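Chapter summary example: a protein plus histidyl-adenosine monophosphate.
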Amino acid sequence: MEITTIKGFKDILPQEAAIWQWVETQAREIFRAFGFKEIRPPLLERTDLFSRTIGEDTDIVSKQMYSLSDSKGRGVTLRPEATASVVRAYIQHRLYHDMPIQKLFVMGPMFRHERPQKGRFRQFHQINAEIFGDPGPVSDADIINMAVHFFDSLNLEPLTLIINSLGCTRCRGGFRKDLKDYLVQRRDLLCPDCRKRAKVNPLRVFDCKVEGCRAVVAEAPSILDYICNDCQTHFGGLQEYLEGLQIPFAVDHTLVRGLDYYYRTTFEIQSDRLGSQNAVAGGGRYDGLVKQMGGPDHPAIGFAVGVERMMELLDGSTKKVNECPELFIAVLGDKAGEKTFPWLSELRRSGIYVEMEYGSKGLKAQMKRADRLGAKRVLIVGDNELASGKGILRDMETKAQFEVDLDSPVEALKKMIASKTEC
Ligand code: HAM
């Protein structure tokens, strides 16, 4: 029986992978300009790391983790997100000793056992960026600016930036209490999950997508009516910096995001072309988490882009990044094949994309393949060309033909390819 991919997991096929590489290169270049360094944490971590950072009552931890026991019976989990791992690495390797401000990014796969649907996979990819050591709001605006600039660089359709403040541990207490009372009074209108959430972790009701629950939270108390002066100053500061950067935004008091570690700023970048899974990136501040996980009391903020959702928005750019060979070498006969094989190698070793058939094929079949690959030019070498010392170089676009001296063909070809004027 044919074995295929697991539900919610997918192959990234070569044509798509070319766009992924382009997107990742854009991210690397932009992140470098903003001073971010790459970190590559492992995919498998202790389960505790995620339950203690993301929160036991979140959907991610309570329902969606790919967890198993190792041979010693210890719980290990395929990472459902990267922030927890970056925080662990920041503490474990004392990265704060190197530099008071650490700016780190992670790219790679995440795993969540969610119900697969458009924009939602069980293995998906994120591009994460995190800043440690600054309480904001300048760093909040800086990292949001980087995310916006990244999407602009990909020429994505206009996206919407939504921001909110969840307050700090002091002001959130009053809000939690009032929210809980409000939700408990309306428990009959909530789904079974939210009835439980209303009691143990009422903020999580905001994440629920069930119609009835959405209607209840739409009328719920607003966190923005509860935040203390310091949190208000912080949130006001962020808005001023964004205005200074001419980045449009909307404030939405229901944007609590599905992870427990957020503190003050939360934000999402959304697209109305994505359907119900409309967030192409999300993030926020998580001051307190580094300390809670055993590190120093360092503030932090970050975001993650969902790469599959971003790819959905990029649909149609496939051809742009499809690389075509600069040269195809078409050979007639074994002798010509043996003679030209080292030329192919030398051109490739100098970084030029060159193709050639492995087996012996007729000229027509080779020209057809060169055409399908989109080769810009074809060098034709057979017994006659070897005898005369002159190969034929055909420009596939203009159909013009040139002679190439076969005594030193590699240098001549390199020059022609570099000049791009002829052939
Ligand atoms: P998150 O909102 O869970 O945040 O995920 C960030 C982005 O990953 C989402 O906006 C979405 O684009 C994408 N995403 C999430 N789940 C899926 C899925 N099942 N399939 C496809 N794409 C998905 C975090 O993960 C935080 N760690 C972000 C962060 C970094 N906060 C601070 N620093």
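Key point: Residues 81, 83, 112, 114, 119-121, 124, 126, 128, 130, 257-259, 279-284, 302-304, 306, 308-309 surround histidyl-adenosine monophosphate (CB under 6 Å).
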